[in-house]
Structures are given as structure tokens and as C-alpha cells.
Amino acid sequence: MKKKEIQLSRMWKYFVDATAEIIEEEGLENVTIRKVADKAGYNSATIYNYFSEISHLIFFASMKFLKSYTDEVAVYIEKGKDPIEKYLLAWECFCIHSFKQPQIFNAVFIMDLGDQPEKLLEEYYKIYPADLINIPEELKIILFERNVSKRGRSFLENALREGYIKEENVDAINELTILIWQGMFTNILNNRKSYEFQEAVKITMNYITEIVHNANLFSFKKYDHTNQQ
């Protein structure tokens, strides 16, 4: 690593770590550029030499809180005997952690980050490669994908290749699963329901499991967006 890159990485970490401390102490909603600058020991203008907007800084700091999820999802998936079980277990792990930390998961997977958010993921793991230790290679490909739909489809494509689901049902299963998760996640994020996270996980996984296990009994008609006025 060149001297300039080392310096860049060091400064980058100062600001990300300072943001993570504020999230831990005051909550994500209380992060401001000024607070980050004060905690890191620099002025606010310096931050913009490394981050184009505060949402990127919050994203990188939130990624540090995802380590427990990325470590655990590999363990969950390993329990699955076939692609369908692995898909359901991956979703169960995602539900558990996203419902426990809705603000963090919103910052990482939902919040508008501008163009090419996947590049932010690559940048994060370049600076924090230790976060990928003990992560299986096939799972790393999915972890580098921020889009929840694409992450889910990766598991379903394995199930399709092994004949567990029909090709015409892949997109429908994926979309319905995400819609169910999003509905519960939005309720929790916006405090619309007073579920304990364990109850929220149970309800969500019951619906997702029913859809996946009964998918081949139905013929889903794909919605054609191009025909809508």
C-alpha cells in the first residue's frame, strides 16, 4: 500500500469510527457532520475531502454494526440441507438482525446513497478486510451486493438449478418475500407496531415459509410494468 493510500485509509477510519461512536452513544438519527468532526478532532470541511455526503459516512459506520449479522448468516446457512432450507435460514437470520437493529439496516440497505452504492460496499471491505475473515467465498459474493432483491435471488437460483422450484416462480417468490419483510420492517422502523423482535421474526418467517413451500402449487403471472400507463 502506497504512503498516500495509507494516509487516506487512516483519515477515513478516523471519521467512520467517530461516526460509529456517535451512533452507539446517541443513536443514528443524532449524527451530524459537526459532531463527527469534533469527535475526530478535525473541522467539518475536512470530512468532505473524504466523503461526498453524510449518508455515505452513516452507511460506512453502520456497516461496522453489521459484523454480528455477517458472521452469523454463514452459520445459519450451513445448517440448511438443501437450497430451499438455506434460503429460508438466510432470511431468518436477516429478519432477526434487521428487526433488532432497524436503523442500522435501513442505513445500509434502504437509505438513498446516490449512484452505484455497491461501490461503497467494496470500499468498506477494502478498508476493513478483517470483516470478511471466516466468510465462505460463495457468501462473499452476496455480501458485496447491497440490493436485497439480488441477494435473495442468488439463493433462489441455486434452488432452481437443483429443481426445487420452477423457473416461472423465481421472481414471484423473491418479490413476495421481500414485500413481506419490507412490510414488517417498515412497521418496526416507524414504530407502527409494538412487536417484540422475536414475535416479528416469527410472523414474517411464517408467511415467507408458506410462500416458498407452496410456490410450486401455483402459477404466478409476472406483472408487466411496460403495459401500465
Automatic annotation (TrEMBL):
Alphabetic keyword roster: DNA-binding
Any one Pfam family match given in the protein's UniProt record, by short name: TetR_N
DNA-binding region(s) from the entry: 32-51
Residue ranges of every copy of the HTH tetR-type domain listed in the record: 9-69
SUPFAM superfamilies to which the protein is assigned, alphabetical: Homeodomain-like
Keyword DNA-binding: yes
Source domain of life: Bacteria
Gene Ontology molecular function terms on file: DNA binding
Keyword DNA-binding attached: yes
Protein name: TetR/AcrR family transcriptional regulator
Organism per entry: Bacillus salipaludis
